């Protein structure tokens, strides 16, 4: 074995040993502020299954949906900072900082950001009847017919709602929002032509795009996606536009540095496993696994970025 391989193997072994050294035998709970079966829940359960063997402990997922994820977030913010109660949160953690006039916690100070698990790109789709073949043509159409086009949104204050409002803000267009209670009914109405446009997770509409039932006008990532190489990035028309949903692991604020590092290392090692990466990619997600410091700075930036969009949108909590 080459010296480089020996060093890598030794580092991996040390990481695994350190992760298993966590004191206590009670299950680690990951609270999810969304119903079972959704993207956040699926990613949390995938992470829990992979983290458990690394930590040498059982890791369970507990769903506490409601208030845009704030119910689960508040429970974790008020939990003992011992590493036994964690939060799998999502983009709304940053959006809610401005969307809700008052929160029972501080989204930065009351949490220990551990790692961003994955991002989930979305795509702007249109019903085939919309006379626009790309983002540039859509913007021209929207400016020629202000208020006559509409966006289906799966929930007020959701990342996909904000993706649409960020698009309108940057393109200086007026497109009407049609809110739904969930992504599935929103997609169905766009398929039926009841609503013309929608920002949707790639995994939710890719099959419809390939079948010709929807037109993909642009992806929300900074560059084109390998899964949709023929679809331009919206940023190719609107420089700087980017709006991927993200999913991250948090602990309560005040976690001891060694405990935070141990959990973060275990999560990042789990994310790096080929089986988990494949599972995440199957769900349409892009694995990340950054450091606590990197994730903390990312969340701070997201709160500022989405705060501007929330204020532009005038959205209020449901």
Summarize the structure.
This protein has 318 residues and is of the alpha/beta class. It has helices at residues 3-20, 39-55, 70-77, 92-99, 135-144, 159-171, 183-191, 202-210, 257-272, 274-282, 292-313; strands at residues 28-32, 59-63, 85-90, 111-120, 122-126, 150-153, 176-179, 197-201, 215-219, 245-252, 286-287.
Protein described:
- Helix 1 crosses helix 9 (257-272), helix 2 (39-55) crosses helix 9 and helix 4 packs across helix 11 (292-313).
- The strands form two sheets. Strands 2-1-3-10-4-11 form a six-stranded mixed sheet, with helices on both faces.
- The chain is globular.
- It has 318 residues and is α/β, with parallel strands linked by helices.
- 44% of the residues lie in helices and 19% in strands.
- The chain has helices spanning 3-20, 39-55, 70-77, 92-99, 135-144, 159-171, 183-191, 202-210, 257-272, 274-282, 292-313; strands spanning 28-32, 59-63, 85-90, 111-120, 122-126, 150-153, 176-179, 197-201, 215-219, 245-252, 286-287.
- Strand 1, helix 2 (39-55) and strand 2 form a beta-alpha-beta unit.
- The chain is built from eleven helices and eleven strands.
